């Protein structure tokens, strides 16, 4: 988690940075499914117990945003697949493909049909035992955006926050008109696209299966799970989304990693975002994008690059 911002006073900057990292820790204590003491983990523990929960405003907000994303993405972005996520995490870690029995069980413990959201009272009830929320496809962008907004509230406007590849930008560095970012190629964290993008006051999220996959019967199954099948996707593409805020960019990148490319483009445009996809076909690199993404390429904006 990297925070970049500009200030004339090093003491003030140091205090602001410390405040932001403490804020990140607070949000991690709400959203993490790795921390068994987090608010999310405690919510997951009451699944199927006929227990009505009133989450904190922040947790409720991200669940509502995730529910809306689930509907908009044709159910391809789904935070209720936490049991499946844990199964695939373990499979990739120990290099052992999950059994059909385990996959069927985990798949049956997912779906917003098993969740009751009362928008009037802002309460949540999980009906299905074993169902677990996993915010991995939206929380990083959400948290990074919160940090940029917090810095702005303290009059730090030239900002960039990088939460594991989800990048939120404020105003560009002093004297420049944009931040310059590179786009990684599929199956590589070293090789980058020859095209840089120039951005400011937007969020950029990239999703891909660079390292996290498992080989089984000649196929590579990614950690990116299709909620409809319960399996990791077997195609390799890098998806980069530019959107108005971090949470939107994050979940769109996740959903567009699963959807057919033409449907991903349609979804991104509907959400007011820009989409860029790179993938290999017959060992040749292919590129596809929405028209509005081309506006961000450096070659189109050299005069404004600063």
> Order of strands side by side in the largest beta sheet?
1-4-5-8-11-12-13
Oligomer: single chain
* Radius of gyration using CA atoms only: 20 Å
Gap from first CA to last CA: 27 Å
Indicate the low-confidence ranges by residue numbers: 300-306
- Structural class determined from secondary elements: alpha+beta
Element-by-element helix/strand order: EHHHHHEEHEEEEEEEEHHEE
Q: What is the number of E strands?
A: 13
Strand proportion, as a percent range, falls in 15-25%
Determine the number of helices (DSSP H or I, runs of at least 4 residues). Answer: 8
Mean pLDDT: 92
**Overall geometric form:** globular
| Main sheet characteristics | 7 strands, antiparallel
The residue fraction in helices comes out at 25-40%
In a nutshell, what does this entry contain?
A seven-stranded antiparallel β-sheet has the order 1-4-5-8-11-12-13, with helices on one face. Helices cover 34% and strands 23% of the residues.
How would you describe the overall organization of this protein?
The structure is a single chain. The protein is α+β, with helices and mostly antiparallel strands and 306 residues long. Helices cover 34% and strands 23% of the residues. The protein has helices spanning 10-31, 39-45, 57-72, 82-94, 100-108, 139-153, 246-256, 261-270; strands at 2-5, 115-118, 123-126, 159-163, 166-169, 179-184, 192-199, 203-207, 213-216, 219-222, 237-243, 274-281, 284-289. The strands form 4 sheets. The protein has a 7-stranded antiparallel sheet, covered by helices on one side. The protein has a two-stranded antiparallel sheet with strand order 2-3. A hairpin with a 4-residue loop joins β2 (115-118) and β3 (123-126). α1 (10-31) packs antiparallel against α6 (139-153) and α6 packs antiparallel against α7 (246-256).
């Amino acid at each position: 988690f990297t925070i970049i911002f500009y200030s004339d006073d090093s003491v003030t900057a140091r205090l602001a940075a410390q405040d932001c990292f403490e804020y990140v820790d607070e949000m991690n204590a709400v959203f993490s499914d790795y921390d068994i003491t987090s608010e999310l983990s405690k919510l997951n523990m009451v699944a199927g117990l006929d227990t009505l929960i009133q989450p904190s405003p922040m947790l409720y907000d991200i669940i509502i945003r995730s529910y809306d994303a689930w509907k908009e993405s044709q159910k391809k972005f789904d935070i209720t697949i936490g049991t499946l996520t844990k199964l695939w995490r373990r499979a990739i870690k120990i290099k052992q493909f999950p059994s059909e029995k385990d996959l069927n069980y985990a798949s049956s413990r997912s779906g917003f049909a098993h969740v009751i959201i009362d928008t009037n009272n802002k309460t949540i009830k999980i009906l299905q035992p074993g169902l677990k929320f996993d915010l991995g496809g939206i929380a990083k962008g959400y948290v990074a955006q919160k940090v940029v907004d917090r810095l702005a509230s303290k009059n730090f406007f030239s900002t960039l926050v990088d939460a594991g590849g989800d990048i939120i930008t404020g105003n560009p560095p002093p004297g420049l008109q944009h931040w310059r970012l590179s786009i990684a190629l599929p199956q590589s964290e070293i090789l980058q696209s020859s095209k840089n993008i120039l951005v400011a006051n937007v969020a950029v999220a990239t999703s891909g299966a660079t390292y996290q996959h498992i080989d089984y019967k000649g196929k590579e199954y990614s950690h990116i799970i299709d909620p409809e099948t319960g399996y990791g996707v077997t195609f390799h593409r890098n998806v980069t989304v530019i959107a108005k805020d971090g949470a939107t960019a994050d979940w769109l990148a996740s959903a567009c990693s699963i959807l057919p490319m033409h449907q991903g483009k349609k979804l991104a445009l509907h959400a007011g975002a820009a989409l860029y996809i790179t993938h290999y076909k017959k060992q040749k690199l292919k590129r596809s994008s929405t028209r509005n993404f081309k506006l961000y390429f450096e070659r189109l904006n050299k005069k404004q690059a600063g």
